[in-house]
Amino acid sequence: MADTADIDEAVRRAVRTTGMAVSFTATCIVGGIVLWSFSSLRFQAEMAQLLSILMVINMLGAITMVPSLYSIFRPKVAMALLTPDQLEAMRRQKEAERKKGLID
């Protein structure tokens, strides 16, 4: 966010760069857990299926829900890390976008 001074652009950049890593990691973990589904122990096989479903849901939530909630609620901690120069640049950028009619 320090490079862009815009929360929405920072979220887009984070999803582009870390989304692939989250997907790859979750796929590797689920792949290992799915092997437990073939266990002869019934409880272990059932828990492996449930855990696999849970991990896929968590991956989808990490890639979609977390960034969207971050954009909607705009936590103040994100702005606290910016320097005064970056805050001023962000204000000027928003002002220019308003003049061009890009935002309300």
Which terms summarize this structure?
mainly alpha; 104 residues; single chain
Task: Give the total of beta strands.
Answer: 0
How many alpha or pi helices?
A: 4
| Strand residue percentage | under 5%
Low-confidence spans: none
How much helical structure, as a percent, in the residues? over 70%
The topology string of helices and strands comes to HHHH
The value of Rg in angstroms is: 20 Å
Instruction: Outline the biggest β-sheet.
Output: none
The coarse silhouette is rod-shaped
The secondary structure category is mainly alpha
What does this structure look like?
- This protein is mainly alpha-helical.
- 79% of the residues lie in helices and 0% in strands.
- The chain is built from 4 helices and no strands.
- It has helices spanning 7-34, 42-73, 76-80, 84-100.
- Helix 1 runs antiparallel to helix 2.
- The model has no long low-confidence stretch (mean pLDDT 85).
